[in-house]
């Protein structure tokens, strides 16, 4: 079967068909996948069955894998690059990070080199009376930039925001050592995508704690207004998961949040990998 790219019709997202990710991919097939990833910001493959090493191999085609604060706590045995995202506990202990990413964000924006992208492999999805729960929403930060009035584009052009690791309440308590390892950083509010050249808004509530050259009150108002603008319904694709989905998003083009509308005994289990990125410009 030949590879097909089927856009979701939302400002981001495309399904890729005709690919078996448990097999090595030829360069032409990979180039088609990477083009779709750059263009649509979110791509997904249904009905996959991949072992941890196969997920690692596929992710590494997009960039070096990262080990981060999540994998330091919850990784797959023998695979430190794969983070377990789950609400399941075994012997009274969580097997993975619970309630990960429930507010809008772009992964690890508080680091000097935020990751290019993130991949989730869905193993168990909560279902209630036949209805899948635990969707993930993606908002196009590129469409949000395009929709800004010219005057606002001018106001934010070349401005930088401060991103503070300690700004957001996280899914687990941080240690003082982790906070010390991640001092506040500054990134442009308008990022240029390193591969497509598209401009993307890069602002989130909580992670962004100030804007260079603006008084705190004015910065707070602008951060909230831009963050809310990015996640307007017109910019969103909502992914309803099925077991066997492999989905990846681009952390410059989109922001995302996980919908926490389920709880045990409904189980959700994902394997997450993260690929290294560049300094935002
Ligand atoms: C995340 O933000 O990485 C978690 C997304 C999800 O579990 O749907």
Key terms:
three-stranded antiparallel sheet, Double-stranded beta-helix, eight-stranded mixed sheet, 281 residues, single chain, alpha+beta, binds succinic acid, 6 helices
What does this structure look like?
The chain is of the alpha+beta class. It has a single domain (4-88, 95-275), classed as 4-Layer Sandwich (Double-stranded beta-helix). The chain is built from six helices and 20 strands. The chain has helices spanning 27-40, 52-60, 141-146, 150-156, 176-181, 216-230, and strands at 4-7, 14-17, 42-45, 75-76, 79-86, 89-90, 93-94, 117-124, 127-128, 131-132, 136-140, 160-163, 185-188, 190-192, 199-201, 208-211, 236-239, 246-250, 254-258, 269-275. The strands form six sheets. It has an eight-stranded mixed β-sheet with strand order 1-2-3-18-8-20-5-4, covered by helices on one side. Strands 17-11-19 form a three-stranded antiparallel β-sheet. Strands 13-12-16 form a three-stranded antiparallel β-sheet. The protein is globular, with a radius of gyration of 18 Å. The model has no long low-confidence stretch (mean pLDDT 94). Succinic acid binds at residues 85, 100-101, 118, 136, 256, 258, 270, 272.
Describe how the helices and strands are arranged.
Elements: E1 4-7, E2 14-17, H1 27-40, E3 42-45, H2 52-60, E4 75-76, E5 79-86, E6 89-90, E7 93-94, E8 117-124, E9 127-128, E10 131-132, E11 136-140, H3 141-146, H4 150-156, E12 160-163, H5 176-181, E13 185-188, E14 190-192, E15 199-201, E16 208-211, H6 216-230, E17 236-239, E18 246-250, E19 254-258, E20 269-275
Parallel strand pairs: 2-3
Antiparallel strand pairs: 1-2, 3-18, 4-5, 5-20, 6-7, 8-18, 8-20, 9-10, 11-17, 11-19, 12-13, 12-16, 14-15
The structure holds succinic acid (SIN).
